[in-house]
Amino acid sequence: MERLLGLLKVKVVRGLNLAICDPLSHSSDPYVVIRLGQQKVKSSIKYKTINPEWNEELTLSITNWTLPVKIEVFDHDTFTKDDTMGDAEFSILDFVEIAVKDLTHVRDDTVMKTFQPNEENCYSADSHIMWKDGKVTQNMALKLRNTDTGELIMHLEWVNLPPGMSR
C-alpha cells in the first residue's frame, strides 16, 4: 500500500475562450475532469458558455508525486457522447517536494519556484509556487492542447496530513 503524503486541493477557477461545440447556440456546456493515477474528480457543468466560472475545489490524495495531473475539458451532450474540448497536464513533483518541507521559518509571500511557458509544458503564463499564509500554493493558467482555443485558470493548495498520520 502506498503511503499518503498529503492532499492536493485543485480549485478550478474558470475557463477562457473555450471551443464552441454547440454551433446553434454559439456556445458549449463545459465541465472539467481531473485525473491523477486511478483517481478521477469532476467539476459541475456550466451551461451555454465558452467562458465558464467554476470556482470549485476538487481534492486529490497524493501517494505518488511522480505522476502528472491530467486535465480534460468536455462539452456535455444530452443524447450523444460528450465532445472533447481539449486537455492539459502538469507535474506536481516540484510542488510536492516544496510542500513536504518544514517551511515555518520562510517569510510569507515567498516565491519558492517559478515556471515559465515552453514547448514542454501547458503553462500559458508564468506560474509561481508560493509560501503564503502558512500554505504552499500555486496559481496557474494552462493552455489546452488538441484544440484550437482555450485556457483553464486553476489554483493549487497543499494540505498536510494531521499529526499522527504516517507519511
Automatic annotation (TrEMBL):
Residues 1-105 form the C2 domain. It comes from the Eukaryota. Its main location: membrane. One of its GO terms (molecular function) is metal ion binding. Coiled coil: none annotated. Keywords: Abscisic acid signaling pathway, Calcium, Cell membrane, GTPase activation, Lipid-binding, Membrane, Metal-binding, Nucleus. The keyword ATP-binding does not apply. One of its GO terms (biological process) is abscisic acid-activated signaling pathway. Pfam families: C2. One of its GO terms (cellular component) is plasma membrane. It is found in: Cell membrane; Nucleus. SUPFAM superfamilies: C2 domain (Calcium/lipid-binding domain, CaLB). PROSITE patterns: C2. The keyword S-adenosyl-L-methionine does not apply. Belongs to the plant CAR protein family. This is C2 domain-containing protein. It comes from Triticum aestivum (Wheat).
